Amino acid sequence: MTEYGIALDIGTSGLRCQAIDLETGETVATAITQRHPIPGMNVIDHVNFALKSGEDVANKLLIGCANQLFASLGIDLSKVKRVGVCGNTFQMSLFQNIEIRDLAYAGENMLRELGVVPPKRDGAILKASDMGLLGMPDAEVIIPPAVRHEIGADAIAMLLITGVADSKEPCLVVDYGTNAEMALICGDGRIITGSAAAGPAMEGQEIERGMLAAPGAISDVDIDGDGWKCTVLDQSMIDRDGDTVDPMTGRSLKKGEAEAIGITGTGTVAALYNGIKTGIIVPPKINTEDGKLHLQNGIDITSHDVDEAGKAIGAMRAGFLTLLHEAGMWTGDVKIAYMSGASGLYVDAIKALGIGMVVPGATRLIQFGNTSIEMARRIAMGKVNMDDLKSFAQKLKAEHCMFATSETFKQLYSIEYAVWCTSMPMSMYNEMLDVYQLPHLSEPSEEVTVERRSMTDLPDTDKCPVKVFESGTYLTYEVEGCIFCKKCVKECPEKALDMVKKGDKVYCRVSSDRCGGTACRRCERACPKNVLHLDLAKVEQ
């Protein structure tokens, strides 16, 4: 009898899962979501939603999404033996439906006042049926341990899957995503971890035409003669030639083999790199007639996109430099950079280095796929020992740099913000470092090698094409005092909101995966009667 394992990666920007035949080790199905089912585009939004609308509501959204994903795999779920899960600490806590207030509020005094007892996050084996996962009564769900609130199981995966933890040479490994978990392996046994709140731009979100890495996404852009050639992901998540266009006007110069529907964070990075290199972009301005950079199929880069992506890149470079400073090292001391996650794999590594996404001074760039789902796969296949994971998590707790309280990080990020958001030229960077009595950045090396150890961030997609799934459900509540003007509907930038009349009552109906969450709330501000409050909305039955 065939038995299956399911690997589930719960990312801040979306969920990815694969079904594996446990006898053969073959991947039999892959499914991903377009977005995260909980409103918002970053961890803070998700936590705020959970605190205001109820942790049980957030958990229902996550579990409901997982159930829909699993059902779309097309396997007999009753034959699932094991579900391996990986993700950051916030996402894993919401998935388990355990306390999150200790993650949201800093300081022991505050937690004591609230009566919050932080739960243990040292790994768990749970029954799928007890968690609300449907159709798999005999399956166990395996949750790996976390290190700290900003360093979760996905960071452990990043270190173990890449194999860098025991490196005798200094190197820096980064999981390029919304949280940008990173670790500096000093080469003397020390590992210093950190997490930069890069934001959703690295996952293609908060970008006007942005999307997760999925079929139809522009993943790279290259200068080709008088035009820019787009690279587009196909149904198997493989790079294909897209159109070559005039970036100033969007006019197609040469037709490609793949049509584009949006752009990933990596595509945005490539567009920024080329734009800055050619002088079309002087952050945050775009020097075209309409202030937009034009790509394939009417997909444009706006100054807002430059701003969002720039802040993300700036947070990462400030994080790299902070870890180096913490270790008594600086640029040039670390020659090897490991790049994991979808963005780390699909981005052009040389462009990433040139724009600040890789530790300055690195000369050997090694690109991995999605280490989080690879860890989930190994767990699902019974190839990971939980005790070993717990032991490694304890080791990582020893040296962690909290960027939120680091004066060095604050100083470095202020320089990055000036570069990306106030038009300060990069040539002034070292002058600003002098102000904070920090060493200068080393000159970039002319000889850089790139190793790409995976073609896709999801294994075996050539054997089973990726199913892209709408992840959201609807949140609804009765809006008392609503005059049905629908100004809120018109104001929503993501078209996530609708107002529905039932008799003499008016109901707000929100698509959870499209809602921008706490960072937006434009609909609430547009309400002339101030009666729209999204926190009151509950999962539609």
From TrEMBL:
Question: Which InterPro entries does UniProt cross-reference here?
Answer: 4Fe4S_Fe-S-bd, 4Fe4S_Fe_S_CS, ATPase_NBD, Corrinoid_activation_enz, Raco-like_middle, Raco-like_middle_sf, RACo_C, RamA_corrin_act
Q: Which Pfam families match?
A: Fer4_7, RACo_C_ter, Raco_middle
Which residue numbers delimit the 4Fe-4S ferredoxin-type domain? 473-502, 506-537
For this protein, what is any one GO molecular function term? Answer: oxidoreductase activity
Task: Determine the domain of life of the protein's source.
Answer: Archaea
Query: What is this protein called in UniProt?
Result: 4Fe-4S ferredoxin-type domain-containing protein
- Which species does the entry assign this protein to? Methanomethylophilus alvi (strain Mx1201)
